[in-house]
Amino acid sequence: MDLRIGIQNSPRELAFETSQTAAEVEQAVAAALSGQAPVLRLTDAKGTVYVVPAAALAYVEIGTEEARRIGFVG
């Protein structure tokens, strides 16, 4: 699934693919925004860990869990 995370006062966004489900990502974001966790911690498909302070989150865009198609569309 594709994720895009906007960070306050930063002109760039974090964009990466993760193997986590949409429900897992949504739960982590909700915990960070409610104050249960001081940071949003997510792992991409290659194992890289991203840690963003909860206070700096501007938005989190959760993409679809659909697998990419390979080949020609007929």
TrEMBL record:
Protein origin, superkingdom: Bacteria
Protein name as it appears in the record: DUF3107 domain-containing protein
